[in-house]
Structure formats: structure tokens, C-alpha cells
Design goal:
By secondary structure, this protein is mainly beta. The chain has no helices and 15 strands. The relative contact order is 0.07.
């Protein structure tokens, strides 16, 4: 059937196929689920494209690989691979990746409060105003403040290079 226009609610039973695009104007909603509100809605409000899940349960996306990209499709923002890594990007540059043994941060990691690192750690450079170090191998410990009052090093710790304690040190 071609060239048919309907007003109001039209019901179909069975599959419906379209030979070209199905076009909705701004503020027209594709509703899936409940007839009154639509448990899942897709629409463009004139400014933003929206996917709204207001039904019960979760919005579940099932895929072996998920890529979220910018609107132009030229920059990665997030990649998730089945049985593999999750990668986060900033301006198309990978900054975080999960691994089978943990995670990798590419670039600086800034922590505004406390950070707890469990297990044996190898730290190539530490810049800190206060630091608590457990079992670690430290190549460079760079104190950025001249008045460092609280550095606690416990457990088996190896410092390579000179250790200078101007006032006192308890070892």
C-alpha cells in the first residue's frame, strides 16, 4: 500500500516493513511499551536527542562491542568489549583502560582526597605534600612542599638513590 495517510491511532498485527526512512519531526515521540506513556521513548526535543527509559527494570544494551562516539562519528568517547576492556577517552585520546589484572591510567591521576593502594606497588615518581607508603619500591620521591610534616613509610620498602632526612628519621 502506498500513499496512505491515517489520522489517530492505527494498529497493525504482524510485521510492518518500510521501504524508506521513517521520519519523525521535532517533539514527535516514538513510544515503545505502555500505550499511555511509553516505557521507552525516542525523540528529539528541538535541542537534544533523547532516549528515555521510564518503565520498570533497567535499560539494557546487549552487544559484543559498544562504541560511543562524538556526533560526527570521528572521535571515540567510550569503548566496551565483551570479555575484554573498557576504555574511556578524552578528546579522542585514551585515558583509562580496564585490564584482566586491574586498570591502566594514561596520563596523570589526580586524587583530591585520600588514595589507598593495596598490594606491592612500584612508584617511579611521587609528588606529594603528605604520603603514607606501605610495601613499595620507590624510584623518586619528590616533595613539592618545603614543609612536609607527615610521611609514613611502613612494611618492606626499597628506596633507590639518596634518602635525605634533614631533621630526623626513625627507621
Amino acid at each position: 500500500v502506498s500513499g496512505v495517510s491515517t489520522l489517530g491511532v492505527t494498529s497493525f498485527t504482524g510485521a510492518v516493513e518500510f521501504g524508506s526512512d521513517l521520519v519523525f519531526g521535532d517533539n514527535i515521540t516514538l513510544r515503545i511499551g505502555s500505550e499511555t506513556g511509553g516505557d521507552l521513548r525516542f525523540f528529539h526535543d528541538g535541542s537534544h536527542s533523547r532516549i528515555v527509559d521510564s518503565g520498570t527494570g533497567h535499560l539494557i544494551i546487549q552487544t559484543s562491542e559498544l562504541d560511543l562516539m562524538n556526533a560526527a562519528g570521528g572521535e571515540d568517547m567510550l569503548k566496551a568489549t565483551e570479555n575484554g576492556s573498557v576504555e574511556l577517552y578524552y578528546d579522542n585520546s585514551k585515558k583509562f583502560e580496564t585490564l584482566g589484572i586491574g586498570a591502566t591510567v594514561i596520563g596523570d591521576l589526580k586524587v583530591s582526597e585520600n588514595a589507598t593502594i593495596l598490594g606491592v606497588s612500584t612508584l617511579t615518581t611521587i609528588s606529594a605534600t603528605e604520603a603514607t607508603i606501605g610495601v613499595a619500591t620507590v624510584s623518586t620521591f619528590n616533595v613539592t612542599e618545603s614543609n612536609l610534616t607527615n610521611v609514613i613509610v611502613s612494611g618492606v620498602t626499597t628506596f633507590t638513590g639518596a634518602v635525605d632526612a634533614n631533621d630526623s628519621a626513625t627507621i
